[in-house]
């Protein structure tokens, strides 16, 4: 009685499929993540909406029913918990960031203090210092790489991973506590190890993990169950994503002291949803972080009026004289030009790093040991270069003397100039002052030192800037991608600041009457923005972050001009570095805009969909469901009415089906003969009911089909899928344009989209992978042969 | 032969409609904008997506075909034009804003100069000044109200109108050139007329109109065709909305010198789309505006280093000493308290204005003459109060003497203190100094004067602040809504600054050791933010606008705290003022979030839809179409296959149908007998074809059905709608939850949504009006009796 329907119903079975072959094509394997190497990574999309099934509706109705007449409803309780958790995220992230900052600062300063003691003007004795220096740096980097050895996901900056997460891609292990620990401790060591890396990217990642961990409450770390919270109301993809967005905002806020920039970063990356409520939460979270950091850093003054607490700052920009700007309006085109140059530098940087990364993926990354060895080798190289460049420069400059009218900030910066084989307290080595300090001190030096002092009347001469800039940016490009946690913002800013100050010097040399051009510090700021913008190509959020870090609104217009021109110039050559890395990893990242290939050509949904759909019937034999789940990795299965030729009844998710099989929610095999039309089934339930919250409780680790086994006797039992079917899935007509399809899919953050014809019969399914530019191009090449479009052209034109 | 199908097919005709009565109900009139007073305003939604019909696809294919192999494609040309136009919008808006600012400033200063000449310490002679003062002010206000008489839409702030426009509502005449002219000239007079109004809201409106006018190229103003541009590539709702968003950003940028705040304002209001490309364009547009304003204001210094060009500014906040903040961290809770108080003040302000507006709508607004008289009466009242309060204060304070270490800004502010019956050059009247100056000077005085000078050791004593604050905020509440163009930002900021400074004074009195609390200027800034936030309840964009106007990043955290607490406190009592006015006008404004009534109850799409759908058949008699169009005002008609019980074939827009009737695109009546099943029609075209661009050329003034007349002979002709049908309309299943429906509708900015059942049969249609909270509540009350849900509960629980 069940022989002929022993396998799942597919689109091909449907009689009289309307122009099914014109679109879609037959045996495409794109939907199968196993056979296609591009999707070999077990990447799943997030599911932001609950399946609207009968059991879900019953659950919602029950919740509403239990709240009837109450003031303190479940919804309000949840809202309060959500705000409390958001507050907690802000506080914890502030503590994490402050600790990481304190640790790396003290390690760095101890390292340099030790080296300075060993350094002597005589060359022979310096060699001891050199060897010690190399040894310390290599050791620290090796420790950093050990953490990446333990948890590979914690390598790199983390910003691509968070971008992907907010884009709706469930990369494995990205927001685990283990990753957080490895990342934060690792980046402390890699920064202390003297590599040209920053800790800003990792801080953003850290904020995201803190948020995910706190909101989910229950998590396992190295096998230990760290259930520290009963707040498990938020265990679904949507809530988790919202928390991660808040956490990322807190991360940016802690890294740059830029709360608004942080909120914008989250919103820009998670562009598929712009919710006012979420904006406020992210705002609140970032605010809490800043507040906590201020409270921690100012605890010694009893929270009085002290420096605005920031872990990273550009220092204070002072106007030349009250009310006037530091630049002339006619200098804005020059800033634009610097932006273009920065865009070029960024493009070269990205291209070099892309080639290196491809080489690394082939030769290094397949072995964990090789990655550690690479770190050690590169760290040694960086140490040698760092020590060699000041020696090559080999000139001592007198410290500035006439400092009566200098500000405190400038006096502090003078103190941090490094003698390096010069007479301490009287002279300094220009190149060493940039290398042998922390990166943010070096940036402040480039931004704020006024002219006066060394050769050609400035603290840093053009030669020194050049000698620092070229090796530093080359090292940065080499280092990004090795197996240590490493951010890219600070190296870009530092290299850019040197470049910008160099530009300023050259302009000043052209100009014999002084005072025509803005001072070199302003040019250094523009250069920093240009190189960072040319590398990252980030949009409005980066402008706001830089503005907040600068803390002076007069730079709004120049920064906007620089970042825009850097972005446009860079985009002529290649993508932003984060996007390059996302694409190299073959992650199905959906850009906010429809890909140009779709804009330039007429493609319809029916052409890009996967026609190889595996369907289920409303009531199905358990054996058929089991075999289907084992035979493919699809995340969602349409439920169709076979009698009417595959009319869409609803959809069933893999997780739900696995849960049903695991819980053995089968009905008696004899209750029903095989059937043709689901209308004949009536409203009788054919199998025991599993409640919606029972299914959802397993989130995010639903049962795996490989762990489930059903006996031969059970195979014949009926599984009644009707109460669990998502009866209102998003659908799109097969004639819809790709623009409309893309917008629907991307804007609502969907996981799948059923493609139907005019009779609501399922003709295909569209997932994230079908809408990537490569898939669209492929569809287009096939579509060129389709006759429908050309017919239209002849007919109508 | 066509007797039995002489009227349009409706849902009721369908045989065997599945649970049609359970949902939706019968003769609802909500969908009809005529019978329901709430929608009596002829409000249409924008249509952001082209109807994807065969003719549209053919048009797109033709464009692609003609671009084949070319480098300089139509798309690139359009993109270039778009950027050029965006640039032009920025420049023009800057010129408009600068002119308006210059005109109102010079008019105001001439007025005060004239009055000061007449003013004398003797009371008798002052009466001449008083009468002159009243006369001038009333005259200026009367002129302002004349412009609103000419164009009623130009009254008020314009921000609610722009919010509605970006929300997707096509309010008539909002973005016309006539409105722009009336608004800009009108606001110049109303500000000069001494009313407590600002010109910032109108500037935002102005930017939007400039953008709409420039992008549309062709427009009529007072009957004169002002076709000044051939750039008419952007004549559709989507492009126009994008330009308006850019223009609004430019408007905010010009009003507050806040380019980033402007971009955020546009994005927050037009929240249904967050497009990276549009962000960049808005960014560019705002940047251009700022650049042009800087260029214009600095032209006298040959664009050298001068003051950062801003039309409105909070002045320069100087830190007490380098690096330290102007406030202590433990003062942040006090700021939060001020925020709460500001929220309360805002709530009272809004409630008072709401009641006044309702009264006005009943008693004044129905007659244009009454509105002008109201303006004259209120203006007289404001003049009397303005003149009386300084007289009541009647005390002369000595000018501060010890000004060696004061900054230029403070010295300038001292010069702008008003003697008003005191000895000029030696004394000033504290209250008059706040009233008899321009609002932004008064704001700067409140923000920047240090303690020292008058009674209780400050420039403005507590009594004077109180005497200014109470009448001023009451007048503001009365004035908003009268028939003059009037913004609300500046009055709120000024009143709030007085309130905040007052709070500061009171705190300083509590504190005997000086220096514990921040100076009164900081408190004034917090008060300004609190009252503005309590009134407008705007979100993140307001924070950024205030931050950019303040120009000092150390205030980020306090401002965030103040604005958040003001918003939360205010929201306990009522909505923001702009939302109140939108709702009083019964505009179907869709909030970004699902209304709470839907969150709290289980409603499905089938319950909220309008079941009274007027449908057409794929091929229809011209007479039937004509009668249908005349009988109702619906904007969209589903096209259904009657044979299969109403299967959705596509949709047809009213505009398209009118164009077809006007162009008489009919086929021979004898070519076809009446038919039952559209499949039998084959692919033969039954009427002549009208190309897509022919239909679209009429945008935005499509033919009206009342202007079309078809003869008796034509009534019988066939109209083949198949090539024009939007075959891929957005649909939703009747069982979808209201959350899902709302999100789909709001996020994609739809105009309508077809509700279908499992067989793709049209059971209803959802438009904007069906998703408003009131409609949802109504549906819910009906839905309580529906048995389906309760069945589910009993069955499953």
From TrEMBL, chains A, B:
<dbReference type="GO" id="GO:0016020">
    <property type="term" value="C:membrane"/>
</dbReference>
<keyword id="KW-1133">Transmembrane helix</keyword>
<dbReference type="InterPro" id="IPR046342">
    <property type="entry name" value="CBS_dom_sf"/>
</dbReference>
<keyword id="KW-0813">Transport</keyword>
<keyword id="KW-0472">Membrane</keyword>
<feature type="transmembrane region" description="Helical">
    <location>
        <begin position="488"/>
        <end position="508"/>
    </location>
</feature>
<dbReference type="Pfam" id="PF00654">
    <property type="entry name" value="Voltage_CLC"/>
</dbReference>
<feature type="transmembrane region" description="Helical">
    <location>
        <begin position="129"/>
        <end position="150"/>
    </location>
</feature>
<feature type="transmembrane region" description="Helical">
    <location>
        <begin position="83"/>
        <end position="104"/>
    </location>
</feature>
<keyword id="KW-0129">CBS domain</keyword>
<feature type="transmembrane region" description="Helical">
    <location>
        <begin position="523"/>
        <end position="547"/>
    </location>
</feature>
<feature type="transmembrane region" description="Helical">
    <location>
        <begin position="372"/>
        <end position="393"/>
    </location>
</feature>
<keyword id="KW-0677">Repeat</keyword>
<dbReference type="InterPro" id="IPR001807">
    <property type="entry name" value="ClC"/>
</dbReference>
<dbReference type="InterPro" id="IPR000644">
    <property type="entry name" value="CBS_dom"/>
</dbReference>
<dbReference type="InterPro" id="IPR014743">
    <property type="entry name" value="Cl-channel_core"/>
</dbReference>
<keyword id="KW-0406">Ion transport</keyword>
<dbReference type="InterPro" id="IPR051280">
    <property type="entry name" value="Cl-channel/antiporter"/>
</dbReference>
<dbReference type="GO" id="GO:0005254">
    <property type="term" value="F:chloride channel activity"/>
</dbReference>
<keyword id="KW-0868">Chloride</keyword>
<dbReference type="Pfam" id="PF00571">
    <property type="entry name" value="CBS"/>
</dbReference>
<feature type="transmembrane region" description="Helical">
    <location>
        <begin position="332"/>
        <end position="352"/>
    </location>
</feature>
<feature type="transmembrane region" description="Helical">
    <location>
        <begin position="464"/>
        <end position="483"/>
    </location>
</feature>
<feature type="transmembrane region" description="Helical">
    <location>
        <begin position="243"/>
        <end position="267"/>
    </location>
</feature>
<keyword id="KW-0812">Transmembrane</keyword>
<feature type="domain" description="CBS">
    <location>
        <begin position="725"/>
        <end position="781"/>
    </location>
</feature>
<protein>
    <recommendedName>
        <fullName>Chloride channel protein</fullName>
    </recommendedName>
</protein>
<feature type="region of interest" description="Disordered">
    <location>
        <begin position="1"/>
        <end position="26"/>
    </location>
</feature>
<comment type="similarity">
    <text>Belongs to the chloride channel (TC 2.A.49) family.</text>
</comment>
């Amino acid at each position: 009685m069940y022989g002929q329907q022993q396998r799942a119903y597919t689109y091909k079975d449907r009689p009289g499929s309307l122009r099914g072959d014109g679109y879609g094509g037959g045996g495409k394997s794109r939907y199968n993540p196993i056979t296609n190497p591009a999707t070999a990574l077990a990447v799943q999309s997030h599911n932001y909406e609950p399946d609207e099934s009968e059991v879900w509706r019953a659950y919602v109705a029950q919740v509403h029913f239990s709240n009837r007449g109450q003031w303190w409803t479940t919804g309000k309780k949840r809202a309060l918990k959500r705000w409390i958790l958001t507050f907690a995220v802000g506080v914890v992230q502030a503590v994490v960031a402050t600790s990481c900052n304190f640790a790396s600062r003290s390690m760095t300063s101890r390292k340099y203090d030790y080296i300075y003691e060993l350094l002597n003007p005589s060359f022979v004795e310096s060699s001891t210092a050199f060897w010690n220096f190399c040894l310390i740096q290599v050791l620290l980097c090796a420790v950093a790489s050990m953490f990446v050895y333990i948890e590979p996901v914690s390598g790199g900056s983390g910003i691509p991973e968070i971008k992907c997460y907010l884009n709706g891609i469930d990369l494995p292990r990205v927001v685990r506590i283990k990753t957080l620990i490895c990342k934060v401790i690792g980046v402390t060591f890699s920064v202390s190890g003297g590599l040209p890396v920053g800790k800003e990217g990792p801080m953003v990642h850290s904020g995201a993990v803190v948020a995910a961990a706190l909101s989910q409450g229950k998590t396992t770390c190295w096998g230990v169950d760290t259930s520290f919270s009963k707040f498990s109301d938020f265990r679904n993809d949507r809530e988790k994503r919202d928390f991660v967005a808040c956490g990322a905002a807190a991360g940016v806020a802690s890294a740059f002291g830029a709360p608004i920039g942080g909120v914008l970063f989250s919103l820009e990356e998670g562009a598929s949803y712009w919710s006012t409520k979420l904006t406020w939460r992210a705002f609140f979270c970032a605010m809490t972080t800043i507040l906590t950091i201020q409270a921690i850093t100012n605890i010694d003054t009893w929270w009085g009026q002290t420096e605005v607490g920031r872990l990273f700052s550009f220092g204070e920009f002072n106007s030349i004289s009250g009310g006037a700007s530091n630049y002339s309006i006619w200098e804005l085109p020059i800033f634009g030009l610097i932006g273009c140059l920065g865009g070029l530098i960024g493009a070269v940087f990205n291209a070099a790093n892309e080639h290196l990364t491809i080489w690394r993926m082939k030769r290094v990354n397949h072995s964990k040991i090789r990655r550690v060895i690479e770190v050690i080798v590169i760290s040694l190289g960086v140490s040698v270069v760092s020590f060699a460049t000041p020696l090559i420069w080999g000139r001592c400059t007198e410290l500035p003397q006439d400092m009566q009218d200098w500000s405190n900030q400038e006096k502090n910066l003078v103190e941090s100039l490094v003698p390096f084989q010069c007479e301490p307290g009287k002279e300094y080595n220009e190149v060493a002052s940039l290398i042998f300090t922390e990166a943010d001190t070096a940036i402040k030096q480039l931004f704020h030192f006024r002219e006066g002092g060394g050769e050609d009347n400035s603290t840093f001469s053009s030669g020194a800037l050049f000698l620092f800039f070229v090796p530093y940016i080359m090292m940065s490009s080499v280092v990004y991608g090795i197996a240590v946690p490493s951010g890219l913002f600070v190296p870009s800013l530092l290299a850019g600041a040197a470049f910008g100050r160099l530009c300023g010097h050259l302009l000043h040399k052209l100009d014999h009457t002084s005072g025509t051009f803005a001072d070199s510090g302003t040019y250094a700021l523009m250069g920093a923005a240009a190189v960072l913008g040319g590398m990252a190509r980030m949009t409005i959020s980066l402008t706001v972050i830089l503005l907040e870090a600068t803390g002076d609104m007069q730079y709004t217009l120049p920064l906007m001009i620089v970042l825009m021109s850097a972005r446009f110039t860079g985009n002529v050559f290649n993508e932003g570095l984060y996007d390059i890395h996302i694409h190299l990893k073959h992650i199905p990242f959906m850009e906010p805009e429809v890909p140009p290939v779709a804009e330039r050509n007429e493609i319809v949904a029916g052409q890009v969909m996967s026609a190889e759909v595996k369907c289920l019937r409303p009531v199905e034999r358990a054996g058929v469901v089991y075999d289907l789940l084992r035979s493919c990795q699809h995340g969602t299965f349409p439920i169709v009415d076979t009698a009417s030729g595959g009319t869409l009844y609803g959809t069933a998710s893999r997780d739900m089906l696995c849960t049903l099989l695991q819980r053995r929610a089968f009905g008696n095999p004899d209750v029903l003969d095989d059937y043709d039309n689901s209308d004949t089934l009536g409203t009788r339930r054919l199998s025991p009911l599993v409640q919606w919250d029972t299914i959802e409780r397993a989130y995010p680790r639903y049962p795996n089909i490989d762990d489930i086994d059903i006996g031969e006797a059970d195979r014949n039992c009926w599984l009644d899928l009707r109460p669990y079917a998502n009866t209102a899935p998003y659908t799109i007509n097969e004639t819809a344009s790709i623009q409309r399809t893309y917008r629907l899919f991307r804007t609502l953050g969907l996981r799948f989209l059923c493609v139907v014809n005019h009779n609501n019969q399922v003709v295909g399914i569209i997932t994230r992978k079908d809408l990537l530019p490569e898939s669209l191009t492929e569809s287009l090449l096939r579509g060129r042969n389709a006759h429908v479009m050309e017919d239209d052209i002849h007919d109508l034109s």
